[in-house]
Amino acid sequence: MAASTASRLIDGTFNALFSNFGDFLKICWAWFSIQVLATLLLGREAADLVDGPAFDPQQLAGSLALLALSIVSGASIAVAWHRRVLLGERPGAVHLAFGRREVAYAWRLVAIALLGGAFALSLSFLRTLAEMLGGTVLSGIVAIAYLVAFVLSLPLWMRLMLVLPPAAFDERLGLREAFAWSAGLGWPMVGASLFAALFVALPVWLLQFVAGMLGRFVSTAANIVLDVVLLVVGAALQIGILAGGYYILRERQMAQGAGPPAA
Q1: Distance in angstroms (rounded) separating the CA atoms of residues 252 and 142
Q2: How far apart are CA 250 and CA 259, in angstroms?
Q3: Residue 261 has pLDDT above 50, yes or no
Q4: What pLDDT digit, counting tens, does each position of 201-217 carry?
Q5: Using CA atoms, how far apart are residues 193 and 257, in angstroms rounded to an integer?
Q6: 8, 53, 205, 222 — which has fewest CB within 10 A?
Q7: What is the pTM assigned to this prediction?
Q8: Which residues contact 235 (CB under 8 A, 6 or more apart)?
Q9: At what angle do helices 136-160 and 186-212 cross, to 10 degrees?
Q10: CA distance 80 to 23
Q11: Per-residue pLDDT tens for 207-253?
């Protein structure tokens, strides 16, 4: 059952992308261009914040600006792609929309990110505490437990992220409702996401390796181009998997005569 669901998610996601790739480029090219320019202007300050000898408010502001831009652009791209995949809504030549739907999507995305950060910090704190109080054996046990907890949490986070797509359709879907209707969807979504990541990353890494053998200039140019390809295709596939998971969730609701109310 899980394998068939994962296969359905993969087939739907890849078909949606490669049959509408031009539309996805219309959705993302302007945002990605802005991100590239902002990174060129502010990226050095963001790097200096980590590597620099002292704290600088200007560097912190640059880092926060890049983070805010990534959230805004990510929400705008995701909303438009969800609506293209599930509603057939075609984008214009330039897509820089950020309105009520995008704000709702970004808010949910930030909330999930904060929950994920709190979870990761809690695990790291427990691991550090165990290493301080125990010996090598206890530290090893805690490290294994840390890894197991992380892996087992992945399907829960994927189910949690199903609250994101409804924002693109002016619908409400609470955490309790999302978990109730997404039983059995967590691991298939994890599997589909892993497959998509490897599908994009492995050819890119191979091409980067080959380009590196052809000289520094070719390697640098290839890395820039391939990084953009990795970002564009990877984003489309991951957003598509969320859309597919939400579509299955809605199928279940419709089969039971239920559905999230319109906002």
Answers
A1: 39
A2: 7
A3: no
A4: 887 777 767 767 666 66
A5: 30
A6: 53
A7: 0.82
A8: 28, 74, 77
A9: 110
A10: 10
A11: 767 767 666 665 666 666 666 677 778 888 999 999 999 999 988 88
